[in-house]
Amino acid sequence: MSYSQKALDQLERGQLDEFKKAYASALRHDDDDTLYNLAEELYSLGFLNQSKRIYKKLLERYPDEDDIRVNLADVLIDDNKNDEALTLLSEVHQGSEAYVRSLMVAADLYQTQGLFEVSEQKLLEARRLAPDEPAIQFALAELYFVMREFEKAISLYLDLIKQGIPEFSSVNLVERLGVAYANAGRFEQAIGYLKQIHSGDMTPDVKFETAFTYLQLKDYKPAISLFEELKESDPQYTSLYPYLGQALVAENRLEDALKALQEGLGVDQYNEKLWSYAADIAARLENESLTETYLKKGHDLNPDDLDIVIKLSNLYVKQERFQETVDFLADYVGQDNVDPQLYWNLAVSYARLEKYEQADRYYQAAVPYFMDQADFLKPAVYFFREMGEHEPMMKVLKAYVKVVPDDMEMAEMLENEQENDF
Question: Where are the annotated TPR repeats, by residue (predicted)?
């Protein structure tokens, strides 16, 4: 038995002191092929320093052996010695049998550094040189998957599956293909692959994607089932809760939807979007007190979330809390990118507070945005008429009659006003 084999046997038995002695003896006495195999085994077991030492020793003896150079670069990358690794890889020239593998190792390194375009260039060059190599197709597919270029990834995964390769490097390609289709918005194709995977074999991410795909297809029962399974196995998977709520709402299970959102808030109480969506469901259940509580929680977390600001001010207007509306919106109306709904809410509130000058200002500001909304136009008609503002009154009156032509009272008013104009 070689010293290398003894070293591996002692590692397997957990005898680290004996391993160190056998390893030292292997370096002195074992032949180079045996040492090369030992370096590969040690690398696979995570003994980077020992593997690196052997590869460096062999590279000194065989400076033209690029396989050793690429293997050493691989070890150096895992040891966070990226610059040293790239120097070694740059020494492998195109005529070398190890050149394609050097490109793949370099691509992997650049990908981990977030240099996706450089990684892509390396892999495309490797594929040009070895177009039928599945490992290159897989690496390129995985890169495109990470880059969210899902259509490119789909093409490569499909090609591998057609070659009879349903799995590569412990990655289920059927699963990957389904997720890629889902992320590309091609839900019909996605579900055809994803439903082939038993739910017990799915990772949390794949279970989420499968449930989400069923949701997009409006197939709510399997979506709910998978979201519920994911919630039970991984309650910290916070992304699931709003979508579970959405599926339950679609099934008209509003109480269950609110409970799901409340469970989500128990896990992630700092997510203003969860508070906002929980408020939406509470509103549908006509629980205005709970709606306000949830909106205020969301607003406290992110006062700049205009969606929450609008919902809260809408609630105040509905409850005829007009002074609160004015006070609440004071900090927002002077900002850039103000939502015109705030103008509408302020116009109504100031009018009801009999502060007509301010109401007029906000009605005038709101008019261009709501010329197709009857709920805005009809009160605006009466407001401008009371203010004696004939031109804006006629503008919104004409718009209202166009939107609601069967409102005979308003049609008659328009006809009378037009006759008076003559």
Answer: 204-237, 238-271
List Cα–Cα distances, 122 to 90, 110, 129, 149, 237, in angstroms: 12, 9, 11, 17, 35
Query: How far is Cα 397 from Cα 417, in angstroms, rounded to an integer?
Result: 10
Are 211 and 191 contacting, i.e. CB atoms less than 8 angstroms apart?
no
Bridge-partner residues for 168, per DSSP?
171
Structure tokens at 105: 């190792």
Contact between 70 and 101 under an 8 Å Cβ cutoff? The reply is yes
For 135-188, strand residue ranges (E) read 167-168, 171-172
Q: What pLDDT, on a 0 to 100 scale, did the predictor assign at position 85?
A: 94
Tell me, yes or no, whether 8 lies in a domain: no
In DSSP terms, 171 is beta-bridged to: 168
Looking at residue 421, its pLDDT comes to 67
Question: What pLDDT was estimated at residue 129?
Answer: 95
Confirm if 274 and 266 have CB atoms less than 8 A apart: no
Give the long-range contacts of residues 173-180, CB within 8 A, separation 24 or more: 175/202, 175/206, 176/141, 176/145, 178/206, 178/209, 178/210, 178/213, 179/205, 179/206, 179/209, 180/145, 180/150, 180/153, 180/154
φ, ψ of residue 171 to 5 degrees: the values are -105, 125
Range of the domain at 270: 198-302
Domain annotation covers residue 93: no
The C-alpha angle 184, 188, 190, rounded to 5 degrees, equals 55
Cβ contacts of residue 43 below 8 Å, gap of 6+? 51, 71, 74, 75, 78
CATH number for 285: 1.25.40.10
The Cα 121–Cα 103 span in angstroms is 9
pTM: 0.76
Q: What is the pLDDT of residues 240-259, one digit of tens each?
A: 999 999 999 999 999 999 99
Predicted local distance difference test score (pLDDT) of residue 200 = 80
**Structural domain total, the chain:** 1
User: Torsions phi, psi of 172, nearest 5?
Assistant: -75, 110
- C-alpha distances (whole Å) from 276 to each of 189, 300, 308, 337 are 33, 11, 6, 20
CA–CA distance from 348 to each of 93, 311, 336, 358 (Å)? 75, 15, 21, 10
